[in-house]
Amino acid sequence: MPEGPELHLASHFVNQACRGLVFGGHVEKSPVSRNPEVPFESSAYYISASARGKELRLTLSPLPGAQPPREPLALIFHFGMSGSFQLAPSDALPPHAHLRFYTAHPGPQLALCFVDIRRFGHWDLGGEWQPGRGPCVLLEYEQFRKNVLRNLADKVFDRPICEALLDQRFFNGIGNYLRAEILYRLRIPPFEKARNVLEALKQHRPSPELTLSQKIKAKLQNPDLLELCHSVPKEVVQLGGKGYGQESGEEDFAAFRAWLQCYGMVGMSSLRDRHGRTIWFQGDPGPLAPKGGKSHQKKSKGTQRGPEERMEDTPPPSKTSSLTRMAWKGLPEQRAAQQPEGTSFQQDPKVPRVTEKGKRRRQWANSGCCRPQKIKTDTPPLEPEETSAS
């Protein structure tokens, strides 16, 4: 799922792709989207973007003299499981383009599209950052650090550190793959109590005898968890491309896959936290590991896997697009949260063959006999996006 770095990369893409382009007309929403209509129309306007944590702000700014006269409009986007922006010719829109901004004539018309295969993403009018989210781990590091350390009495820090890292009140921009990479680098068990991990950082002060360059060198050589919450996402942004991605074989995601050390890697173990999200780690899971939870180790492709691991790779429904099928083949995070009503993933991907017993039941039904049947599905739930606990 897109995390802080992906939102920042998306804002960079929008600003580069839309630089010099003049948009015009009304904003078009797909009929299947449940998001609000965007009441904006202008004969000429610019589009710009900025990001903060797991949110992206898109600003529509009318040019001087544009008709009808109106103020700029800002939208806040949450990418959900699969949101992204693409620029495409208006006569060749990408599938699942749920919001579209068209360039003004003359010249070949283009469309900036918010593309969301799974439709978990959404946008809000008004342009205000969600008030419950903390400072951005990428752009507001000092505020972020202070916000965490002065709130260690909060009950979220009674939980395992892997769960606390998804709470966007304190770790705005951190998600599933980032928490795995950060904890792995420090060899912190994911189910260690969060307060135990963070309490020592309140007392951490560099020696006053060190010069500034020595302090910087010491931080780079021995970063603490909060410093890695800033520097690890920054590494992903510096990779370029699109950051986290599920599509196998695409060059845009090759650098990201090569960068990963823990998340979904062969030899790593995994457990589900109490929110149903998979945490990848190496070694001891920690004292707060879920009771009865079985740790599964990532094996190479040629190794036989158990039934629990096979559930992680359940294929998508047969009626979805080829692009969606590609998305299901990628990194192992996604398949864990309960799918909302009305989305396109309601069909059981494993449709059983009709057995002789099934034929007999159908015959009974056609003859007017009513025989109650229990319908059993074996589709694993999708992995949830972080909400207020993330």
TrEMBL record:
Its EC number is 4.2.99.18. Residues 279-390 are annotated as: Disordered. The keyword Hydrolase applies. Involved in base excision repair of DNA damaged by oxidation or by mutagenic agents. Acts as a DNA glycosylase that recognizes and removes damaged bases. Has a preference for oxidized pyrimidines, such as thymine glycol, formamidopyrimidine (Fapy) and 5-hydroxyuracil. Has marginal activity towards 8-oxoguanine. Has AP (apurinic/apyrimidinic) lyase activity and introduces nicks in the DNA strand. Cleaves the DNA backbone by beta-delta elimination to generate a single-strand break at the site of the removed base with both 3'- and 5'-phosphates. The keyword Nucleus applies. GO terms for biological process: base-excision repair. Its main location: nucleus. InterPro entries: Endonuclease-VIII_DNA-bd, FPG_cat, FPG_N, H2TH_FPG, Ribosomal_uS13-like_H2TH. This is Endonuclease 8-like 1. Residues 336-347 have a biased composition (Polar residues). Gene3D superfamilies: 1.10.8.50, MutM-like, N-terminal. Belongs to the FPG family. Residues 293-302 have a biased composition (Basic residues). GO terms for cellular component: centrosome; chromosome; nucleus. It holds the Pfam family Fapy_DNA_glyco.
